[in-house]
Design a protein that fits this description.
- By secondary structure, this protein is α/β, with parallel strands linked by helices.
- About 40% of the residues lie in helices and about 15% in strands.
- Strands 1-2-3-4-5-6-7-8 form an eight-stranded parallel beta barrel, surrounded by five helices.
- Helix 2 links the parallel strand 2 and strand 3.
- Helix 1 runs parallel beside helix 2, helix 1 packs across helix 12 and helix 7 packs across helix 9.
- The radius of gyration is 17 Å and the shape is globular.
- The chain binds phosphoenolpyruvate (PEP).
- Phosphoenolpyruvate binds next to strand 8.
- The site of phosphoenolpyruvate has 13 residues, from strand 8.
Length: about 250
């Protein structure tokens, strides 16, 4: 049985002090213990977040990571640096990294493989643009991302990856995919994983939906088949809203 996961992606929001305040407020709410909770703050808040989130069962993730061990890579953050802080998850291939920072599938695949090697749990983001969906190319796009981003990853390792299906047109736009469309794509992803690997990987891998998830629509999305949780941007920034998402 796959456990639901609600992950917050704070993007470039909140200072370390604001992070501490968020967790102090979050402690006041009763949180659904049957849901895995993850918050991904900016690098500068990770240390504060790990310490503040410990007693309420929230795990911490980073929003990106280098595929290199160490060395002359100015501005980069390594897996060892994240692990040393107590970080457990890492978002990889977010559409903002792909679009603004021109990260390609080969590079994202290298980061996913490296995260697995280091025992960090990758949250791999995939999804189509509006143009691709309107041209009926959304399944092809997602299929191609899965094939490239899972290249040279064994079945034993693939099962450790969390996939987040995030249609780019739904991110930060207020436009949510309908539960039916989101569920249909998550099902398609599971079928593709089954073809690439086997039933065991397909049945156990977690597939999240992301794109304008908020307290008002989370319940419907979380009850749709094949959706194992949500990756949430804007609505994860307020402790009260995050508590509502977790208690969907
Ligand atoms: C995201 O950043 O991954 C995201 C889904 O953002 P939002 O929830 O704000 O659409």
């Amino acid at each position: 049985m796959r456990k639901k996961l609600i992950a917050g992606n704070w993007k470039m929001n909140k200072t370390a002090n604001e992070t501490k305040e968020f967790f102090e407020e979050l402690k006041k709410y009763d949180l659904n213990k049957d849901v895995n909770m993850v918050i991904c703050p900016p690098f500068s808040s990770l240390d504060r977040a790990v310490n503040a989130a410990k007693d309420i069962g929230v795990a911490i993730g980073a929003q990106n990571m280098s595929d290199q061990e160490s060395g002359a890579f100015t501005g980069e953050i390594s897996a060892n640096m994240l692990l040393d802080l107590g970080v457990e998850y890492v978002i990889l291939g977010h559409s903002e990294r792909r679009e603004i920072f021109n990260e390609q599938d080969g590079y994202i695949n290298s980061k996913v493989r490296y995260a697995i090697e280091k025992n960090l749990i990758p949250i791999l983001c995939i999804g189509e643009t509006l143009e691709e969906r309107e041209a009926d190319g959304h399944f092809d796009k997602v299929k191609s991302q899965i094939e490239k981003d899972f290249e040279n990853i064994s079945a034993e390792d693939a099962i450790k990856v969390i996939i987040a299906y995030e249609p780019i047109w739904a991110i930060g736009t207020g436009k949510t995919a309908t539960a039916k469309d989101a569920s249909e794509m998550c099902h398609f992803i599971r079928e593709e994983i089954k073809k690439m690997y086997n039933d065991e990987v397909a049945n156990n891998i977690s597939i999240l939906y992301g794109g304008s998830v908020k307290p008002a629509n989370v319940n419907e999305l979380m009850n749709a088949p094949d959706i194992d949780g949500a990756l949430v941007g804007g609505a994860s920034l307020k402790a009260e809203d995050y508590s509502k998402l977790v208690n969907f």
